[in-house]
Structures are given as structure tokens and as C-alpha cells.
């Protein structure tokens, strides 16, 4: 309230600190504070892992899981115990990301258990239960994500998204804790566990913070110990693991000179046998150094990791720094919503085309269980789709689909199919849709084209040109359709490598990241970040419409003071420092708006493409009375200087602050969720 009042009364504060030759004022909505430049770079020493266990959670769009490792025995990574269920025709190592809440909003179940229970509910009763699946996508697609953002359950009821995520994380927490405790000889305290949650590298700051808040809500860690939780980037985690790979742990899709694409043997996992064997064991051993795959590597060689998941395809470009084996990011993370669910959506669109969109929507709403059945059937078939396949893929339509259609439309499913002129989909008398090879191609093609196009575009960037390896990871990388398409497009440009157990590379890498988060030593900024400031107005340089006269002085307003630029390399531990001074005596809070942009050619916060994306809050403690203090805020020597230190080289942006005079640390927080 008080600040609001001040804001109206005194839009621009008068406090100016002539610290540097060109005085700069900070432009804030709430209170105005002075700022002067001081930017320094320092590199943090490597820290030994102070935790005894690392538990990583891969929270996927379609499937999720966890893995852990004891720091005493960090070369062994243990995969989660399968706690229930499975699907016919689908070998899953993670659990489906499905959550079921009771009609009174309590947690009921997660994973196969949630899906199967929901499926078996009486349709009347099911309408009261809240079933969520594929809900991770919403976090990326929501542009104004906040703590209040809601998710819609299948029955249409809405719940705060943060609650949904917290329920799921709580479930993982309980399972992981139990399993870790079972395997540990000593008594484990909660604070001995470091948690890692993976998110797509293309997620923006609000989404990463959202995941963190959900983890706090779930009780994974306390907000007082933020460093106990790490947010890992999915392709980055995969890359950390890939650098450990040995030759027998990969499939190489590269095409050698003279080789053509007529044979399909390279696709479809020649080493199925190996996969089956390794799936029996839930413990994986990793190399202590860099794997032998890299023996032919030369200093400076670059590689791309493409995480082809259910929701997103996420790419990262790395270089291994020898001899330490640390990683350097060479180009900002890129990717998009081209995950394998694109194929599922194409199938749904095809059903709409045949049976009518209104019918499909009604069917989904009225017969949710049958819809789940249909999607399970499709999932199994989708996984067997391969480019060289001659015969059609059969997908059985649930009886209730056939029956519902007849009652709703007064005609048979078969008639609908005939009328739709869909020659590539046939009807089998055994109640099955027969998708021809052509139909399957059509379902996969848009998604696969997007992926290949994206990788090609990335490879054309100067920083990326000449990469030696392309690693395909994530569940979708198991698809022979995708493998073949990537091989065809890029098999002669670089070596295409698919690690065994591709679906688990992210989890394994996330555990390695938790054991040593300093392994990625340099990252690229995904965006330009800065704050709005006022500078001395210079005629001829600044436009007149930015002129602001205050107390006889001329200021240029709206200038963006850049902290970091898009695609800038930032080393771990490198910091950006700015000092701020409260404009008024007794001011207890400084709130600073952060702006971001996808480009770097910006001067003013009012330039096109610049958005306010978050705030930094500095909570000022009661100032210690300086000996014999007199005078107000402008009294030079007594002016408080709050030094804010911001880090952009981690997976999340961090801020800390100190009150310089008393050398006390100041509560500093950065918030991207309240816009
Ligand atoms: N053989 C296969 N053919 C086609 N698609 C496959 C195959 N195996 C797995 N998939 C697809 O891969 C996806 C699962 O991959 P993964 O577990 O890496 O995704 P996720 O982690 O849930 O998603 P994201 O990382 O995007 O949040 C599913 O959509 C699944 O249908
Ligand atoms: Mg994933």
C-alpha cells in the first residue's frame, strides 16, 4: 500500500549516486533505486558432493521414472523398481505419466495403477474422478504461467497445475525414499539426499521455477535448502551420459561410402538380445572417465544430442573439454513440440476425419475407458511401425466404440469408413482398423519431418557446422521410422549414434549430473536478460521521446541494462554484479523488473520483442545505525549499498545479495511466476 502511494506521488526518485562517470538510475515500478555498474567474473571452485544419495526424477510427457546412486559407489546407477502393471506389446521402463485424484481431490494413484483404476471405474462414477495425462505439455505451452495456472482433468474439472505436479512428485518421493532406504546400510536423513528433476532444455525460466515450486510443495526439499534440488536439462543430462558410452553400448546408424538405404537391417535394433538382457538388471555401471567411443575424438570435436521424447524434441550441442572431460555448450538449446505424441494426435485427427470430430469428442467424454483402450492399442502398434513393413497394422476398435457409433450416428463403423473415402485405412471383419503402410507414414511424417528439419537447421549454424556425432535419445529414438528418416537425411554428414536403452539415457545422465553438477562448465544463454534503467540523456544519441526531465536533469528513460545476451557463453560460477541503493530511508524492499528478449539488437525495454518476465526482490534488513548517523537517504557516506550477484551459467538463474556496509547477506529472490 505504502509503496503504491509512493509510486503515485513520486514516479521517479531523486536519489542519484554519482559513483561512476555516467550516473544510471534504475527504472522500477515500485520504488526507484540507484544503481551503479560493477561487473566482475569469478569462477567457483569445484565442490565435492555433500550428499550421500542422488535421486533423479525424469518427469516425462508420456512416461516418468526415477533412478538413484550412492555417492560412495557412484559408478552404479540403480533404476526404479517397477511397482506395477505394464501394457501388452509395450516394453516400458518408466511409468505412464497419469494421475488420478478422487472426487474430493485427494491423491488416488499414479502411473499404470491410475490408468487401470480409472479405466475400470463405472462410466457414471468415472465422471466424478479427476484423471490427468500428458499434462506436462501445458507447462511449456502456457505463456503466462503462474502458481494459479490450472489444468483440466478429463472430466472437465479444473485443479491448480502446481497441485497436480506436486501430487506426482510426492508419489515419486515416497517410492524413491523407500527404495533407497531398503538398499542403504546406514540410516538416511532427508537432507542427505540430493534431488534432481529433469525438464526440457527449451523450457523458459517460469517453467523451471514452476517445477521447483512443485517440488517444494511436494516436500522433496525445503525452500530453505534450494541447493538440495537441481533442475537438470534433459538433452544435457543425456549428453553427460553419452560421454561415458562404450562402443558395445551403442547402435551406429552412420552410412559409409557406397552404402545405400535399401536394406533395413540397421533399423529396428539389431541388438534386441542385449536390450532384453540388460532389462533384467536394474543396476547400470558407468565408466569413470570418458567412454571408449570417444577414443578417436579430437580436441574441439562437437556433437549434438537430440532428446526425442513424447512431448518435445530438445537439442543441445556440446564439446568435450579434454582432459577433464567437462562439457561446454556451443549453441543455445533449441527444439520444439515435435514429440511422439504428434503421431498420436495425427491418429486422433484421422479418426475425426473418418467418424466426425463431434463424435470423437463425445466418445472421449462419455466413454473415457474405451478411449484409453484405443490409445493403448494404438501405442503398441505405433511402436512396431517400420519403414520396410509390407503388411498393414491392425488396431482393434473397442466394442463400445463400434456400439456407440451405431447408436449415435445410426450407421455402422464400416459404412463410415467407406463413406470417408479413406483408401489407406481399411476395415477388417474382426472389428479392426487396418492401417496400411501409407497410412502409418502419413501419421508419422509431419512429426518426423519437423524433427529432421530442426536438426538440419541447427547443423547449418556456423557454431555447429562440422559436428562429428549426432546422438538420438529419448523414447521416440527407438522408432525405426524416425531412425530411418534421420539416417537418410544425415547419415553421410555425421555419425548417428543410438545408445542402448535410449529411453533411460536421460535418467542415467540426470543422476550423473546430480553427482557432479559442475560437469557442464559452460552454457549458452537462451535469451537476453536485463533491467530497465535511466541514463544521462545525450542529445543526438537518444530519441526525444525517451527524454525525461527530473529536477532539472535530463534522463533517457527505458534503457535496457543487459546482464547477459542471447547465445552468450557463460561459465559456471561467472557472475553479473550490480549494486542498488534504496531510494528512500527506511525502504524495506527493492523490487526490480527483469526484461528478456530472444534477440540481442535491443536498446530500450520498449523495443519490439522485449517482455517483462520476472522480478528480483531484495528484502532489506533494518539498517544498523551507523555511529553518530545523521541525515537522510542522500547522505553520501551512509547510503546503503546492496550488492546483487546474479548467475546465468546454471540451469536456473540465481541471485544473492549482500548489504555492503554491514556485510550481511540480504534475502534475494527471483520470481518468474508472478507476471
Ligand atoms: N518404438 C517406438 N516407436 C514409436 N514411438 C515410440 C517408440 N518407443 C517409444 N515411443 C514413443 O516415445 C515416447 C516416450 O518417450 P520418452 O519416455 O522419452 O518421452 P517422455 O520423457 O515422456 O516425454 P518428454 O521428454 O517429451 O517430456 C512415447 O510417446 C512413445 O509413444
Ligand atoms: Mg523425456
UniProtKB/TrEMBL annotation:
Keywords associated with the record: Membrane, Transmembrane, Transmembrane helix
InterPro entries: ATPase_NBD
Superkingdom: Eukaryota
SUPFAM superfamilies: Actin-like ATPase domain
Ranges that cross the membrane: 12-37
PANTHER family per record: ALPHA KINASE/ELONGATION FACTOR 2 KINASE (PTHR14187), HEAT SHOCK 70 KDA PROTEIN 12B (PTHR14187:SF39)
Protein name: Heat shock protein 12B
Record organism: Sphaeramia orbicularis
Gene name, Swiss-Prot/TrEMBL: hspa12b
